[in-house]
Amino acid sequence: DTSLAEVNSFSPSVPISPSSMINQYKFEDGPELRDLFITVDDPESHITAIETFITYRVVTKTTRGEFDSSEYEVRRRYQDFLWLKSKLEEAHPTLIIPPLPEKFIMKGMVERFSDEFIETRRKALHKFLNRIADHPTLTFNEDFKIFLTAQAWELSSHKKQGPGLLSRMGQTVRAVASSVRGAVKNRPEMFTEMSNYMETFSQKINLLDKIAHRIYKEEREYFNEMKEYGPIHTLWSASEEDIADSLKGIASCIDRCCKATEKRMAGLSEHLLPILHEYVLYSEILMGVLKRRDQIQGELDSKVDALANKKTEKDLFSEEIGKLEDKVERANNALKTDWDRWKQNMQWDMRSSFTNVAENNLRYYEECLATWESFLASQSVDLHVEEDSEDRP
């Protein structure tokens, strides 16, 4: 495994074959042990006088005893997913909550509400819910259960029962005050190493994300040129009778390579780009989790300092410090456990994603090479036939 100090690469070694490599990474929560299955599908557009939005069908099948039924079907919009994420962060501040796709798409990418955008978001929302379902702690969160089972009006009513404005303001003020205090004095070395790891990871994953998008853009430009290049040879063959068959053969080869390029582009857009971007978002989430852990630690440090400077109310301070020490310990243990799980998942995702790309590239080049070799072999046979006919008396 890659240690916290080893951040120069995602994989310290390369297994003999991609299939054997993927088989090496098995998780305890395998499909045969799962008891909660979630599907996000069937997007629907809703147009009102105020707004236009998309809802997605969320189908849940489970064998858990705490659910009243074995199957549920509800419709959720993006705002509902945002609510769930915020509730999970509120209940589990030092657990790694899976990322959601951004609300607004970047300029220059596909248009909002286009079929491509909706399908990309649907896949991301599907992965978001299933990552929560696979998490050993988050999967039993009560708000998650309500999200999966409550009808729209019930969910809306539940949302209104959240913390009031003054409570939320108090949390924000405490968070700001904690961040203003500066670096945490008694931060364990493990979390300093985690922070350093994430800074380097963030730089690397953002760079990989940019490179992958540039490769995809260049591949699309190449594909568009090939689409125009093939028909040119077909038109050319109409005016060159002597080499018409050869020109048509070239056009056919270009068409096959064009289709192979399209398959490779689909592999990039389905298996590489989403994974890299998901971990770009994960890097931001991890930095936020580490900051929240430091805020809890900072609250404890401030109480300890206050106790050292006070001669009265020591009993009251001691009780508060005891509670904060327990809170810090729980936060540390939660983050350490989730960190190991996240890193294992990240390494598996990266290996499987890049392995998939490598296998797609091999298939692509083998297919194109075989196409052109077959064409050249046919031309060579035709040339020998012509030479033999010319040599005959």
Automatic annotation (TrEMBL):
Which ranges of the sequence are coiled-coil? 307-334
Sequence ranges assigned to domain PX in this UniProt record? 34-155
Give yes or no: UniProt keyword Transport. yes
Among InterPro entries, the record links this protein to: AH/BAR_dom_sf, BAR_SNX7, PX_dom, PX_dom_sf, PX_SNX7
Q: Which UniProt keywords apply?
A: Coiled coil, Protein transport, Transport
Q: Which GO terms describe its molecular function?
A: phosphatidylinositol binding
GO biological process terms on file: autophagy of mitochondrion; endocytic recycling; piecemeal microautophagy of the nucleus; protein transport; reticulophagy
Give the matching SUPFAM superfamilies.
BAR/IMD domain-like (SSF103657), PX domain (SSF64268)
Q: Name one GO cellular component term.
A: phagophore assembly site
PANTHER family referenced in this protein's UniProt entry, alphabetically: SORTING NEXIN-4, SORTING NEXIN-7
Assigned protein family = Belongs to the sorting nexin family.
In its UniProt entry, what is this protein called? SNX7 protein
Organism whose genome encodes this protein: Struthidea cinerea
